[in-house]
Design a protein that fits this description.
By secondary structure, this protein is of the alpha/beta class. The protein is built from 7 helices and 13 strands. A hairpin with a 2-residue loop joins strand 3 and strand 4. The mean pLDDT is 88.
Length: 255
């Protein structure tokens, strides 16, 4: 039986997956609490890592040490860099890189969905009026600007975990699949600066968030919109992943 380790940063992303799964059970691979479920002949372990590259990498190491997975998955929400993607669209990331001071570091290729898995995921998203597109997972802290877009960077989406998971996966020779759904972007901006409301360990600083909202009262309405968009995106990412994992051959490996 194939073993798969799935990493979601936030409980919202985790819960969107569990909502689609019957018969899951709690377990603890290493220091992380997890949920275990089966899909076809696949034994899947879902870990909620917390936000940030460091925590995601630690979750990947814990999964590898505890369950020896044949595949790792980074799943959740992300922000679009350009306005060509709609809220809820799902990006199947072909590669990942870190973004530092607006500039992309080296790209690492990721596992790709098979044609059957792509069709299944795209079909599952149709009732949600969302599309499945290829793109790049750009791992950053907060909401940085991409100052230069290399040729390898297509449909870039900003998130905070995938490059960390990819580094650990590459060290162990384990393929990594990444599916990220759009929760914000140029058409729906985050109403505050993420870097100012999070500490160095990516924990939310409630006091700073309240100050930001008080300085900009309209942010209250924007926060409500952001919450709805994030829930929609998390749900779509979960739907696409479960549809892909329901196929006999869900992915192909890049050489």
């Amino acid at each position: 039986m194939e073993t798969i380790g799935i990493i979601a940063a936030m409980s919202l992303e985790r819960d969107a997956l569990l909502h689609l799964i019957k018969g899951w059970e709690r377990c603890a691979p290493g220091p992380f609490r997890s949920q275990r479920f089966r899909r076809l002949e696949r034994d899947c372990f879902l870990v909620t890592s917390g936000m940030g590259l460091k925590r995601a990498a630690e979750a990947a190491r814990a999964l590898i040490g505890a369950i020896d997975p044949q595949l790792l998955v980074s799943v959740g929400v992300a922000g679009a860099v350009h306005d060509n993607l709609e809220i809820g669209d799902v990006v199947a990331c072909r590669n990942t890189c870190r973004l530092d001071q607006g500039l992309a570091g080296p790209f690492q290729p990721l596992a790709l969905l098979s044609e059957a898995a792509r069709r299944a995921a795209a079909q599952a998203l149709l009732p949600r009026r969302a599309s499945l597109v290829d793109g790049s997972a750009v791992t950053t802290r907060g909401s940085q600007y991409v100052l230069h877009q290399p040729e390898e960077m297509t449909n870039p989406v900003l998130e905070m975990e995938t490059a960390g998971i990819a580094r650990v996966a590459a060290e162990q020779g384990i393929p990594l699949l990444c599916l990220r759904a759009i929760s914000d972007g140029p058409r729906a901006l985050i109403p505050f600066n993420l870097e100012t409301v999070m500490d160095a360990e990516y924990n939310l600083r409630i006091g700073e968030l309240i100050k930001s909202v008080l300085r900009h009262p309209k942010a209250i309405l924007q926060l409500g919109r952001m919450g709805r968009n994030t829930r929609k995106a998390a749900g779509n990412a979960a739907i696409a992943l479960i549809a892909a994992l329901s196929q006999p051959s869900p992915l192909i490996l890049q050489r």
